[in-house]
Amino acid sequence: MNLAGHYNYWVAIFLMMTGFYVVISRGNLIKKLIGLNLFSTSVFILYISLGKIHGATAPIADDRFQLYSNPVPHVLILTAIVVGVATTAVGLALITRIYEQYGSIEEDDIRIKDESL
Amino acid sequence: MNHLPVFQVLLPLLGAPLCLLVRRGTLSWLVATLASWGGLAISLALLHHVSHTGPITYNLGNWPAPWGITYHVDALNAFVLLIVTTVAALTLPYALQSVNLEISEENRPLFYTLLLICLAGLLGIVITGDAFNMYVFLELSSLSAYALIGLGKRRRALTAAFQYLVMGTIGATFILIGIGLLYSLTGTLNIQDLASRIALIPASAYGHRTLITAFAFLTVGFSLKLALFPLHLWLPNAYTYAPSVVTVFLAATATKVAVYMLLRFSFSILGSRFVFEQLTLGKIMLLPSLAAIIIASLVAIFQYDIKRMLAYSSVAQIGYMTLGISLHSHTGLMAGILHMFNHALMKGALFMAMGAVSYRVGSVYLTDFRGLGRRMPLTMAAFVLGGLSLMGVPLTAGFISKWFLVKAALEIGWWSVTAIILIGSLLAVIYIWRVVETAYFNPLHEIEHGQEEAPLGLLIPLWVLVGANLYFGIDTSIPVDMASWAASALLEGTMQ
After folding, report:
1. Parallel, antiparallel, or unpaired for β B56-59 and B70-73?
2. pLDDT under 50: residue ranges of chain A
3. Chain B touched by A52 (CB under 8 Å)
């Protein structure tokens, strides 16, 4: 297996694990959401890498180019980006409401405030 | 008639913006109710069609199969569509009064809009024959579910919704990775096309490793979504703090749809021989399922918020469904599918009873139930009958699925598994009994708030579900035939 030739996959895995780690380790809800974004963005890179063909051009309809990369993953990822944006929007809206209700976006503070009731 | 499959999803999807446009709570409710009843009618028609003339394939926009998105209805998804639409058609009439109490005036049209989008997403997941389309519908239903849970009265609803959002998105992203790996291997997203191309990959090929990785991502993703035991952490808070109507709807549909996705990918796409013999899904699922049945039931016994108690009981009941799948036999699979239907009936009824109690009393702590047996006799009677079904007492629907599950375990001679199924039922007796004891044998609460029985608008849907629990416990032919037929179709899918 060619390790260096698959560097975009390594980047995707690195980003994915970074995002996952941030989601798990951070108590700040905004940071958690950033981690979640990083996590889902890494999948976009994975998908786009799947469509790449060596020596091929961008998928443009032209007689001069016979070999072009697979456009289907690109289209799929456009949909996934929209989903990601919507998820972030819902997440931020929830965080805003949480801040209004609790006066904090730190998970530990929120837990203490819930337990003190 | 020919366009029925697409209308199954289109009806709630078009109803949603309409709800928003009419801008009046009651009018939005009317639109949503009509859309859900229309959905039920369509799913019944589809079921009738499938059972008489076989599976339906519908090409969206007339694009032929591997290129366009197809909707494919067979025995399994016709049955799951019926579960989802039935629950929706009963939840919406129930919603009117409950929502008027729990959701503020200006939010009501938005509430019904979200509920219809969630319904459209769930129906879309079930009916679609395209793997990526399934992911999009999954996110559609999940995002609306997060927002719906966040509308709960208590502020902890918000943190519960956020927790669900984080775990749900991780699960959905895992599913996305799995689908991407399957695409990289086969170059197709159509479920039937995927199945036929994956069947051609020899076991020794390099691509096989991709297949195993894809399967691992998909299984973890689905397990998060269906709240399989160690991955269930989002569920108790989400169900406890969501508005009553949302809990009824999600508890009865969302996890079942996730179980459906697991079945669809394991049996129809990857093939049960590959999944069970090479990847040993049976063994992987067995332990979490048994742990769910015992541990979640034990945790349920110590809950004082009864909605939370029922949420933990849901985790245990999901254990029964996955246990049925993990036994890898026709009877086991059938018991799992049957339990999807029966659990929707019993948990729908129990959470509706919780909604009725919270409508009159304001909260559902154990202490609130003191004397309720006399104060709200109809609601509590419904709770008792729903509880009996949950325990699996004969002549209730719950008994039938437990019976087949025990039969499946005995067929392969697993006595210990049989014992655990029965212990799970005994634990259910304990946690249901705590509520019954408080309601019937404890003196009336001194502070008397909300004297009378819940309004008819809540009682009628509740008793329809309770009636269904009793009816399908006596006349078992319809769900048993459907489940058995769906199970054979799933197992046959592997022979191709």
Report:
1. antiparallel
2. none
3. no
Residue B495 — very low, low, confident or very high, per pLDDT cuts 50/70/90? very low
The count of CB pairs under 8 A between chains A and B is: 72
d(CA B63, CA B72) in angstroms, rounded, equals 14
Question: Coil, helix or strand for B379?
Answer: helix
> Does B165 sit within 8 Å of A90, measured CB to CB?
yes
What's this model's pTM, rounded to 2 decimal places? 0.93
Q: What kind of fold does domain A4-115 have according to CATH? A: Helix Hairpins (1.10.287)
CA distance B382 to chain A (A): 32
pLDDT of residue B442: 79
Taking Cα atoms as reference points, which of A53, A43, A54 lies closest to residue A77? A43
Residues of A within 8 A of B158 (CB-CB) are 94, 97-98, 101
CA B348 – CA B431 distance, rounded (Å): 17
Cβ-Cβ contacts under 8 Å for B139 (sequence gap 6 or more): A83, A86, A87, B121, B172
**Residue of B63, B176, B217 best to disrupt the A interface, most CBs of A under 10 A:** B176
Three-class DSSP category at A106: strand
**B110 near A CB under 8 A:** no
Instruction: Provide the chain B residues 180-239 that lie in CB contact (below 8 A) with chain A.
Output: 180, 183-184, 187
Say yes or no to pLDDT of B188 above 80: yes
pLDDT tens for each residue of B81-97: 999 999 999 999 999 98
Average pLDDT over every residue of B249-265: 93
